[in-house]
């Protein structure tokens, strides 16, 4: 009876996973993507905010030759998206190393968000002639690239045994 109590006391709160687990394999690439995204967003955010404050008047003033009614909403959407992506990426990194069970769902959101944002951006872009002219198809390429990334990594986070065995807490 006493040995059974000792066995329960020494047992980990989470059972050891069967099969492959841990932050190796393709999860190394995922970690690199998360860190690089987080660092690049943090480094580019101040410059982006400064740029927006400098050109805001020229884009949103009705007297400006560059004025379009959708510039304001487009800039606000960009700012909100950037802030949310910084927060989401930081949160995912914390939960990633805590090996929380919510990480696969968070990663799916992380991969879908740029596609949704890109489509919204394209819709707005096609309404602003100057923005469409300056874009030169880069936004469409980004949506295609992000969609392909979703096609690779979302099934990985759904089907992978390593993911299932690693994120269990």
From TrEMBL:
The chain crosses the membrane at residues 26-51, 71-94, 106-128, 140-158. The keyword DNA-binding does not apply. It holds the Pfam family DUF2569. The keyword Membrane applies. This is DUF2569 domain-containing protein. Keywords: Membrane, Transmembrane, Transmembrane helix.
